[in-house]
Amino acid sequence: MRKKLVAGNWKMNGSLAENAALLAAIKPALAGIEAVVCVPFPYLAQAQASLAGSSIAWGAQNLSEQDKGAFTGEVSAAMLLDFGSKYVIVGHSERRSLYGESDALVASKYMVAQAAGLIPILCVGESLQERESGVTEAVVARQLDAVIDAAGVGSLANAVVAYEPVWAIGTGKTASPEQAQAVHAFIRGKIAALDSGVANHLVIQYGGSVKASNAAELMAQPDIDGGLIGGASLVAEEFVAICRAAAK
Ligand code: PEP
Q1: What is the tens place of the pLDDT at every residue in 34-43?
Q2: Of all protein residues, whose CA lies closest to atom 6 belonging to ligand 1?
Q3: What DSSP state is assigned to residue 167?
Q4: Active site residue 201
Q5: Which candidate in 20, 78, 113, 203 could, as Cys together with 118 as Cys, close a disulfide (CB 3.0–4.6 Å)?
Q6: Is 114 contained in some domain?
Q7: How many domains does the structure of the chain reveal?
Q8: What's phi and psi for 56, nearest 5 deg?
Q9: CA of residue 228 to ligand 1 center, whole Å
């Protein structure tokens, strides 16, 4: 059986005080349940100090595709590792749409993360316009192919894929369990055509307005192996309930 894994994406939210309260609430409540929080860079040290030794791993929401040097404002994979990060989100739709990250750049970041020993959480997903034009699968396939062509299908043995329909992120509009399952099955099938072993073990998270109230139904789908959670990951009871629903 595949494991289920829920990751929180705090986005650009939090403060030392707010994070301390959130971490103190989720840590005991999730004892023994594997989960992840992806925090803003400045709070990696706080996450490390708070979560070390617990079942909750931590990581970042982005990284540079460069190793080091004159790249003002960037943060390298090695720096994330310095603070004990295990995971890093790559290709989140906000990075793609607001910061112009191309499929090729996302693939570079994915490879740099893996080469350093981080587990990339690779985000893919279509916009509302793309869904309405019937090109959801083509878009997701293109985003996956950019990584598979560059890094090989075998690289997905050390990665997580997050299907996040852009129209469902932060909008309160969740994909129905059937809509999400259909795309998850497409993703797994596409990878299975190249390597069935990798496909069977791949954790494919769903992201897009997941809440405690809709988590159980989503997590019950055969190809949904957890979630990437934005807004609800900032509310301890919500995040804990989602992680528990996935762990059932
Ligand atoms: C996300 O940030 O990846 C996300 C899915 O956000 P939300 O859960 O708020 O829709």
Answers
A1: 999 999 999 9
A2: 230
A3: G
A4: no
A5: 113
A6: yes
A7: 1
A8: -100, 120
A9: 7
* Through-space distance between the first and last CA atoms of the chain, rounded to whole angstroms: 13
Query: For residue 52, with 0-12 CB atoms within 10 Å meaning exposed, 13-18 middle and 19 or more buried, which class applies?
Result: exposed
Residue pair 56/35 in contact (Cβ under 8 Å)? The answer is: yes
The CATH code of the domain that includes 202 is: 3.20.20.70
What pLDDT, on the 0 to 100 scale, is given for residue 122? 99
What is the domain extent for residue 159? 5-10+41-48+56-234
Q: What is the pLDDT of residues 3-38, one digit of tens each?
A: 999 999 999 999 999 999 999 999 999 999 999 999
Residue 1 pLDDT grade (very low, low, confident, very high; cuts 50, 70, 90): confident
Active-site hit among 65, 164, 184, 238: 164
pLDDT of the residue at 174? 87
Q: Closest ligand 1 atom, CA of 207?
A: 5
Chain segment 134-189, per-residue pLDDT in tens: 999 999 999 999 999 999 999 999 999 999 999 999 898 889 999 999 999 999 99
Atom of ligand 1 nearest to the CA of 210: 8
Rounded to the nearest angstrom, the distance between the alpha carbon of 209 and the centre of ligand 1 is 6
